[in-house]
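Today's session is about reading a structure prediction critically. Students often jump straight to the picture, but the first step is always the sequence itself: look for stretches that repeat, for charged clusters, for runs of hydrophobic residues. Only then move on to the predicted structure, which in these notes is written as discrete structure tokens rather than atom positions. Here is the chain we will use throughout the hour.
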Amino acid sequence: MGNKQSAQSTISDDPKLLYRQALIDQQNNDDQKALTCYTQALTRIELIDDTSQENDQLQYDILLNICDIHIRQYNTTQASLFIDKAQQMAHKLQEQDKIIQCLDKQGEIKRLKGDYQGALHDHHQCIELKLKIDGTEGLNVCDSYFHIGTVYSDQGKYDEAINMYEKSLQIQLSALGSNHLNIANIYNSMGIAYHEQGMYDKAIMILQKSLKMKLSVLGDHHRSIATTYNNMGKVYDYHGKYDDALSMYKKSISISLSIVGDNHPSIADTYDGMGNVYNHQGKYDDAICMYEKSLQIQVSTFGDSHPSLAKRYNNMGSVYYEQGKNNKAIYMYEKSLQITLSALGDNHPTIAETYNSIGQVYNAEGKYDDDISMYEKSLEIKLSLHGDNHPCIAATYHNMGVVYLEQGKLDKAIYVYEKSLQIRLSSLGENHPDIADIYHNIGNVYNDQCKYDKALFMYEKSLKIVSSSLGDHHPNTATTYHNMGCIYEDQGKYNDAISLYEKAASILVDANLDNHPCLVFIYDNLANCYDKKNRHHDATAMRQRSDNIHHNLQQDDAISPKPENLPNHSQALQDEIIIGDSASADASDQQIQSKKISITGNNDDHSHTSQNNNDVLKEKQYFNAYVQALKQGSCKNKVIRAMYAGPRCVGKSSIMRIFTQQRLIQASDPTQIVDQSDKMVHLKFYKIKDRTTYDFRQIWNNSIHEIVESRYENQISKQYVSNLMHVHESTLTQNLFINDDPHPLPTPSVATSEDSRNKVSTSPVTAKLPIEKNQFLQQCQDFFQYYYPSWLNKTIDDSQYAKIWDFGGHSIYHVTHQPFLSSNSIYILVFNIHQQIDDKVNTRDGRLLNTTYLQSMQEWLTSIIGGNGNQDKITATIDNDQVEFSLPIVILVASHGDCIASREEGIDRFIRFERELRNKMPCYNSNIYSSRIIFNCNPDDNSHAALTDRNLCSLRLHEIMKSFVQSLPFMCNPIPIRWYIMATILHTPAHTNNDKVASSIINRIRTTRVHKIMKWQEIQLLAKDLGLYEDDDQFISMLRYLHDLGEIIFCAKGGIDDWIIVTDVDWLLQIFRAIIQLQDCPLGSLQIQSLYEAAGQTGKISTEYISHVLLPYNLDFETKKSIINLMETYDILCGIKRDNMKDQCHYFVPYLLRFDAKPFDLSQYHMSEMLYIGYEYRDVPYIADGIYYCLLSSCLKEWNNTKIELYYQCAKFYLTSNRYYIIIKKEHSHIALQYCYQKLDNPAFANSIRFKVQASIYNNRPHDIVKEKLSLLMNDRMPKFKGAIIRYYVRCTRCNKLTCIANINNLQEGNLIQCQNEDCNMLFESQSINDWIRSYQDPESDQRRGNSVIALHQDNKQEDVNTHFFVVSNMIGTDWTKLASLLDLVEDIDVIDSENSRIFDKALVVLSKWKKKFSKQANVKKLVQVLKQLERADIVNKIKMTEE
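Below is the predicted structure for this chain, in token form.
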């Protein structure tokens, strides 16, 4: 019996000995030995047939300690299992304190699982139970407050966390005093919370306070001291004080090594922290070395599947990501993910952060859909764990914003950035670095939108926060200064850019980061700006610095440090990396193989393979830059059209040939419409050495190259600088703070909310295109392969180019100028210095034309300047003088200098010509630059003096053009890459078969999809299919830009369905020439020759004639119809349709009439006096022939009949139903009207005809019709004069000058008019008033002849109402539809809206229709009444002012 009891006692004691040994092992962090002893102790207890309370107590303690070990190892499943067993034992013992203890542990486990609500519930329940037992808030309760604070900290609720810590602190201060270790531990936790809030100075202060207390209690050689040094290292790391951070980590590791040896988990944590610092410094090899040391310890301590390894793999993945080694990064992240999924399940915060990291690699590879998918997985987990207001949610929104930014989904980017901003503001306040990051990235969005002011505002907000929270010289400020510098560089503000780049570089150098990779880009950008400012020596120095850093980094890669004494596992890891990379299906397999070779060192042809891989990588990077540039990649416009214009036979083509260094041709034929030479004048921003010519396609190619190159460099520069410098947004898992819990709880190695913060990105964006992704990428690849070979080894320049056009001077071509003129061109207006300004223009065969040189110059200036609605002014510096000019610019140049005896005579003639021109056209003075350049154009004179003179004249003209080009806003416009690609497609002719790439893509598209003339829908669909379409507004802007350059003709007249695009301008010019050519009779039958002769005599051509001359062009019906429609749209011709025929049989082309056509014989007609329509001389000095001819065409459409006769600048229309003719004649700046009717011998018949004509004039008011049409034409074709008031004029019989009768106050009794000319002012009797305004009186009212003023007031009111149409149209805005409704024109609104694009035009058509429809009832009174109904007092007041 005694022996049996003795044996049992021995067994019973055995578990206690094992328990004590396990406690020692646990305190020494030898968890594996401790678990072995605890497990053996439990087994022995189960073998003892003893249910004593002592054994139950021992079993409870063992279960609780085993739970602690599993918590420290993040094995929450096993921890939960053992805490359940411990709870069962606590209930068996019926000890309330043990039940509470288990509840506390259960809350800790839930916190690790991310079940923060469950954890808070358990800890609050503990507080209730403790208060119920103790009655007061004692030390027991303060532990629960501390645990609740830790949960809040994990949730990102730092204010609540600090509140809980302070509650715990107050209890412990009152119970333990101010110098107790527990107090120091609480300060440690509070320091962590302050750090997370971005209150770094306060965090350092609190941690230093904790350190001081620990040193006084524990001395300087305790593990707790090492913990505090570790935490301070992290704060300094975040603060950008990398040297201080490393100092703290080294102190921590020194203490830990002497206490726990070199293989303890705490040592691994410190190595991790040091690795993070090296990563932030860009010392990637040092970082990898530290991470591998940490990995070695973790593997030897916990095995190869412990959750703590996930953190190390994640950190190593982040380094590979920063190095651009994306396959290695993905491999590491996937290993981290595999371990975490196995240990913690699929709904843990660490899983979310790993998804986040993988997403960022996909982002770097341009796999945006996969990227978003990862972020959405991450977000789903975080939302389920933290709700929708946790900082880690903000981090994921922030990262998604970066993806949307790079996809070009800028609205979505702004949306998620603002969501992130809202969350972070609520949890972190307004002065946290994370807030700065969001402002920074919102600035990036504005930067990509070219909203530079808004971008700078956001960068400045970011900078202010970073400066106040991290200091003025924190490396993160360098990022912001760098990106702001990029904006100023893009804007051409090089001094500002230089200042910011220098500041960014200075900050990094002062932070001992003088070998940091991002300095490569900053120095390169500085060099570019220095070059712009001609500081070439400084630029060279900067490039040398950049090259030195780059060389040092390459050397570092070549001799990368290897971690010492790595275990076999690390070598196995390297092998796994190689295998993982080789097995990857990534497109860069060759690059991966190169990595494998560099690791194993077993390839004899390494340098060659490396070069090949570099080429492959570079091409891939260029392709990514190209794809990203498609959205908003652009460069400043490089091309402008320079158009040579002037009278007939003045030598424009000769000057153009001299200017472009081509040989003069003797007796060259006259230019037909336009000579499109495709010669490019090479203009540079610095001194020009030559004027070489370029192929236009080469310019497009260079521009595309520049955009992609800029995106390639800026993407690397901005992203790289941002990635490296915004440390608090890095992708790596930071070294975690260690809490010194009074009851120590190992901190899990999970990423905090800040660990998921994305790098700041300013990368370019890719296009959002309405085509399938694979199709889009294939299109991109095809185009990229077309361009890329020509970019290799080619430098980018900042040249500008002028495309030279030589317009024909023949007067019959003036009407065809409209489709080709552009307000965004420079014009060189040429005149013959040997001729006087009033001389008749002389042809090459010696014939004198009716047109004088003055009239011809007026034609050109009116077409060029009057046709431009741009009211902008520029300041150009010429000969060191700054002069203001209006647009467009016209440079006056003379020819035939060889016909002048001396240069002095030439200059004198030039000045006289210039003076006369300015006097005759005063409103154009600010547009004209008088160059005083006189060219010798004699092809027989090739003497040295002549050649020298031509060269000097060319250089002078060249410098003048350069000065204007550099000052034009048009040249500062950013031109998207899509426009250049479309220009290549539309411009490039068929290539030869040896150009395989062109034949496979560009030529294929042209031959299958591009036609010489296209409808809007066709070309829009083409752009969409090619991924080159963004929206209608941008596409219209592109077409207008190409039209400005003369690459296409874009006719946007009428509704959008009627818009026409001509892609082959030469072809259209040839067709115009074929139709309007009258110098040589086209070959054909006698009938065709007869039709040709008739065109010159009548100004009409038949459809048969047009069909004949167009036969060589093989036009199908639709194409021919489109061309005719185009010509009719521009009033180049006007269809005449007989009453009994559906189709056009003739076209009215008045400019084809020969100048020697005979005038009308009007001897058998009663003639009215002339009534004139026009403008004040100071407003519109000249009405161009083109306007006059268009007016005739427009009137022909109004009075559709075939009885129209022409002679030089005069037309006679027969109004059949009223039996009289209307004569419309051009006289300088006025249109003269006259009507006539046949003389009859029979008085009764004669009176009947007279009254009928007078009634028609009075009721139908043909003069109003002509006036209205002239006004519409001027507003449409001469936008410079838009709003100028058109009036009626009569000729004063005293001074023989025209005087205005628009105002009723000018009319006296009877037919008396007071002349408005200052040198006259006499009263005179005007028969014109009687013939036109008082033309009709009833035969029964003859007694009211003499002083009668029948309808005088009404007529003048009607006259007045016309003068207000322009004011109303200019001011009415969107109320034009309401105006139409009140004027009883509701049914016309839709038609007017579809046929007119501008509101002004819509309103003007409404008013004109109203006037025509209601005649006498359409007066000022009615118009004012309607405007008052619309509550448009502003317009009413304007009308009253005009009336007065």
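Discussion point for the tutorial: The first strand starts at residue 634 and ends at 636.
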